[in-house]
Amino acid sequence: MQLGEFKVLKKENNARRATLMTHHGPVQTPTFMAVGTKATVKAMTPEELKDVGTQVVLGNTYHLHLRPGEKLVKKMGGLHKFMNWNGPILTDSGGFQVFSLSQLRNMSEEGVEFRSHLDGAKHFISPEKSMEIQMDLGSDIIMAFDECLKYPATPEEIKKSMDLTYRWLLRSKAAMTRKESLLFGIVQGGLQIESRKYSLDQVTSVDLPGYALGGFSVGEPIELMHEIVKEVGPMMPENKPRYLMGVGTPLDLILSVDSGIDMFDCVMPTRVARNGTLYTWQGKISIKRNEYKEDSGPLDPECDCYTCTNYSRAYLRHLFLSGEILGSRLNTIHNLHFYMSLMKKARQAIEEGRWKEYRDFCLTRFIKRDEKLT
Amino acid sequence: MQLGEFKVLKKENNARRATLMTHHGPVQTPTFMAVGTKATVKAMTPEELKDVGTQVVLGNTYHLHLRPGEKLVKKMGGLHKFMNWNGPILTDSGGFQVFSLSQLRNMSEEGVEFRSHLDGAKHFISPEKSMEIQMDLGSDIIMAFDECLKYPATPEEIKKSMDLTYRWLLRSKAAMTRKESLLFGIVQGGLQIESRKYSLDQVTSVDLPGYALGGFSVGEPIELMHEIVKEVGPMMPENKPRYLMGVGTPLDLILSVDSGIDMFDCVMPTRVARNGTLYTWQGKISIKRNEYKEDSGPLDPECDCYTCTNYSRAYLRHLFLSGEILGSRLNTIHNLHFYMSLMKKARQAIEEGRWKEYRDFCLTRFIKRDEKLT
Description:
By secondary structure, chain A is α/β, with parallel strands linked by helices. The first copy, chain A, is built from 15 helices and 16 strands. The first copy, chain A, folds into two domains: about 5-265, TIM Barrel (Alpha-Beta Barrel), CATH 3.20.20; about 275-370, no CATH class. Helix content of chain A is about 45%, strand content about 20%. In chain A, the strands form four sheets. In chain A, strands 4-5-6-10-11-12-13-14 form an eight-stranded parallel β-barrel, surrounded by four helices. In chain A, strands 1-2-3 form a three-stranded antiparallel beta sheet. Chain A has a three-stranded antiparallel beta sheet with strand order 7-8-9. In chain A, strand 4, helix 1 (about 45-50) and strand 5 (about 55-60) form a beta-alpha-beta unit. In chain A, helix 6 crosses helix 7 (about 155-175). The longest helix of chain A is centred in the C-terminal third of the chain and has 27 residues, at about 325-350. The interface between A and B is medium-sized, with 33 and 33 residues.
């Protein structure tokens, strides 16, 4: 396969089983990408990431720009070598974090001036700067620089923002000159179907190797996102990967694959793992609960990950209550394995023409269970 | 070999190369034991412990008694199964922590009443209770319950404490009824050669499979410890393992092996690793230092551990400054590998009749370098 090629191998309704070729090898979709914000997926080695089935690691442009800085990473041979990950890397544009983490933002047509959340130092990111950072990092999949709108926003704000995001996309494309990288455009448009379609038309008018849906997970009701993805997902170009940014729960993933989405990323499985919340095929578990105190069984009897194979719930509870690093590690391994396994089974189901069956199985499991949970 | 057998394979001056048989297999000495206070060697999996060359893991009776409790551990199949470590485990008696960590102690002939540093709850440990806890944990090497004296202490205080420790040793021996476990006695006696000899006579008058030197690392000048170990080490029974508790730096280990010591444990390599201090064959390193910012070389060019094989100093510095768990992990792997490797080389050197050469090589490296360090 050629760099950037996206081959749809099988379809069932809107769900797709496909392969995307990157400079660091093929990615089998649908896929969940592990978030490695600061050049490390928290608590995990690259070998462990491979073991749980990770194909793509996501790096955060905003964080890496502030520390250690993309120039340093470039000098050290790029992000792959720096963090010892030889699989594909996707970097975000920095836009989302500039708008959510930084202080004292100053927006203009040119870009965004902001102060670092680390030390208050002034920084400026424009589409050109974002491309430069991501190219210096040596990213395989580079995201266009977009404005991430607050929620809720007025129709006027949304329109203005989409138009700016479009102009920034054109500048991103002009500035992204690295042959080994693929540039993905980001569809914005808030939480209205009509504005989403408007942004989709704008963004897909630019020929790119992939397109993403951004601007979700900003505090909106989750049903609204599902509704929009269900409508907009299938409208996205058939022959290009579709990436739903920053999403989500196992339920979100299954519903979105059903709407034709191919790629996902989310901090949730790793973040909640460190807080003792674990995804299992029987629902979510809070490992600190007293009921697991003397529970000698595995976290998830239906799971074959390293954690479930070797440790008891009682031990995981003890590690969590004792604040032990190994607790964060074992929990993260399990949650990532769960997500990767969820997607692997989805790929197999689509290949074998039983996607709907698998989807419904997952829905029964996750909807029932999620409602019970705190 | 039979359980508890200690076979000295080779000697060079006072340094010994030997094998101790435990219920979970043989231990090759001299050896450094990794401290796994709360049923986990901080930041490490059992597989990683094996990879760096760990033979014995040490569990802390005080901590495990308070949380999760030895009865729970026993119910879960014992400490080995609970923490998934199938090699030998040594447990301390709880004495050291009762005297250093707990509050409101109330000492009597019977034992020590104290309040937990976790929740202030009242607990009582006696020789019998300590044995019961360690037997419940399923420890391979059980330490007698001793009084750990404060430093400095008067000759009267030392005498009184040694006599109490001796009476507690007799009670420990009577209470330690688990056939699979080996009971080690602890020589106390403060920092006077004469009182150490007095305690040594007392303790070795009880026939046991091993003897330890306790009561060091309590704030005394390190030269004083070296002097006493040099004198007392070779006086300990020839045909039994000699364990120097809670010690120490690489230099301490080499000097003590030279004084006939076989076994060591210390939190130092794991604790300082998490604070970014790393032992290398070129001396100690503080990874946060600015000089490593753009250093693409390995932590220790003379080391073949996982960390040194795969990561740069620049990356380790970045992980440390970012507070990333992977930083603690990679640093711990390296430091433990360094300690285990130091002891492995010592075993090889003694076997091959070049102990003095190896010792002097180490001294040149560590004495020179240690003086430079902060």
